[in-house]
Design brief:
alpha+beta, 5 strands, single chain
Length: 246
């Protein structure tokens, strides 16, 4: 199962995501993502995270390669390829579609519970989350973690080790991944609001605004560059909707 979101919405979300991480989370991941104020721009109006997401940047895989690599498998029977805008338009229908794909029979009441738990209203209330998977204790003095990066054709696994201290390295009830205490903020579709969903209390005096025309034009040009060879892919990546006939 894979999901795609409008690229500009992804960019706005990534700026928020990277600027909202707590110091504890950054320390756990070796200082990543860098703590960059959301008002930082270059001469063209680009935030560093947004620029890193453009084709050729270190964060290119987060969007461009992810979409391109999954697109050829969209009609495979063992793949369900979703668009965020479609799920937002019909959450209940999307949950039912996923359940059918997974061959899970949900009663009407069970379906309603899942839909409620997947709603933005409920997810905004979730304050505790952890982004690592602890595998065990390879030695008396180390903890072993695993990161998994999924692509249609492979699963990349990275193992890393952290010293075992007296206190737990990460406790979901004491440590927050993001400063606001929640992972989901707005979940907008097509708003391209550059920083309006950032918790400004951490950045006093920051003036929030939208993507400027130059940023939008550069991102649209990147979409043409990466997806323009397939007009159906280009349109679907932007808007979602039904797949074109095979």
């Amino acid at each position: 199962m894979a999901m795609v979101r409008n690229g500009l919405d992804v960019a706005a979300s990534m700026v928020h995501f990277c600027s909202s991480m707590t110091d504890e989370f950054r320390q756990l991941w070796g200082g990543f993502p860098p703590d960059i104020s959301p008002d930082v721009r270059d001469a063209d109006g680009f935030h560093p995270v947004l620029k890193d997401m453009l084709p050729g940047g270190p964060l290119e895989d987060i969007y461009w390669r992810y979409v391109k690599n999954w697109w050829p498998y969209r009609n495979d029977p063992n793949v369900i390829f979703l668009h965020y805008s479609d799920v937002r338009k019909d959450l209940k229908g999307s949950v039912a579609k996923i359940a059918d794909f997974l061959e899970v029979d949900l009663s009407p009441s069970e379906l309603d519970v899942v839909v409620d738990r997947c709603s933005l209203q409920h997810m905004k209330k979730v304050k505790y989350c952890s982004n690592v998977m602890m595998l065990g204790f390879p030695t008396d003095n180390e903890l072993m973690f695993e990161i998994q990066l999924f692509r249609p054709d492979q699963v990349n696994k990275f193992h890393y080790y952290l010293p075992l201290n007296k206190d737990p390295i990460w406790n979901n009830y004491e440590h927050h991944t993001v400063r606001s205490g929640k992972m989901v903020n707005k979940g907008n579709v097509g708003k391209v609001s550059y920083f309006s969903n950032v918790n400004t209390s951490h950045f006093p005096g920051v003036e929030m605004d939208n993507f400027n025309p130059e940023v939008i034009a550069r991102f649209r040009a990147a979409e043409e560059e990466m997806f323009g060879h397939d007009p159906a892919l280009l349109q679907w990546a932007r808007e979602g909707g039904a797949f074109p006939p095979v």
